[in-house]
Amino acid sequence: MENLDLKRRKAVQKMETLKAFYHHAIVFLVINIALILYFGNIFGKGPTEFNDLGTYFVLFFWGIGLFWHLIYVLIYFFFKNNWIQKWEEKKIRELIEKE
Predict the structure, then answer these.
(1) What are the CB-based long-range contacts (under 8 Å, 24+) for 80-85?
(2) How close are the terminal C-alpha atoms of the chain, in Å?
(3) CB 66 within 8 A of CB 25
(4) What angle do CA 25, 28, 31 make, to 5 degrees?
(5) What's the predicted TM-score (pTM) here?
(6) Residue 51 above 80 pLDDT?
(7) Could you tell me the sign of the dihedral formed by the alpha carbons of 21, 77, 17, 84, in that order?
C-alpha cells in the first residue's frame, strides 16, 4: 500500500512538472504571436518594424528560458528516477552514519 502511494505521488509530481512546461510553452507562443502581429502592423498603429533587433529580444531570451525549462523537464523525467534518487539515498545514508 505504501509503495502504491509513493508511486502515485511520483506520478503526480511528474504530471505537474510536464503541465508546467506545457503552460510555459503555450504562454510563450501566444505572447510571441501577439508581438509578431503587433510589430507586423496588423493593428494599423505604425510602420512595420521587423528590422529592429528589439523586435526579437523577447522571443530570443524567453526562448532561452523555455529551452532550459525543457532541459529541466527532460532531466526530471529521465534521470530523476535513477541517478539523482540513488545519489540522494547515498548522501542520506552518509549523513546518518556521520552522526
Answers:
(1) 81/10
(2) 31
(3) yes
(4) 150
(5) 0.68
(6) no
(7) negative
